[in-house]
Amino acid sequence: MGLNVEDLTAIDNELSKRHIDLDPNGYFIIYLDREGGLICAKHYTNIIDERGLAVDPETGKVIPARGKVERTHTVLYSGRTAKELCVKILEETQPCPVTMFDHAAYLGREFLRAEVALVTEQEYVQD
Question: What Å distances lie between residue 113 and 30, 59, 64, 69, 120, CA to CA?
Fold first, then answer.
């Protein structure tokens, strides 16, 4: 007997609790532009301090993982599909803004989740 949706969700929820090292080149905030039919990803730069925390390069303050942060993105990427967005960011942008394989894999997963939400008209919340 195979796994059901609840089993798969439980596996993903448990994996979301693991420690991850942050990409020293920055992070992305992903959202949908439903009117334009686009998946959007704002790229923000950061510095990783000696504690492994993301720090705003301008202020030196720690960037919180939850809640609103008033920062200006460096680049806005958008695409109609997860694949189109991955190609733009990971293949066409030089130098590549992603420096870690696990970060690239995470973005691919998130872009696909966003694409499904866009097509099915469901809510998308970045993991």
Answer: 10, 33, 23, 23, 11
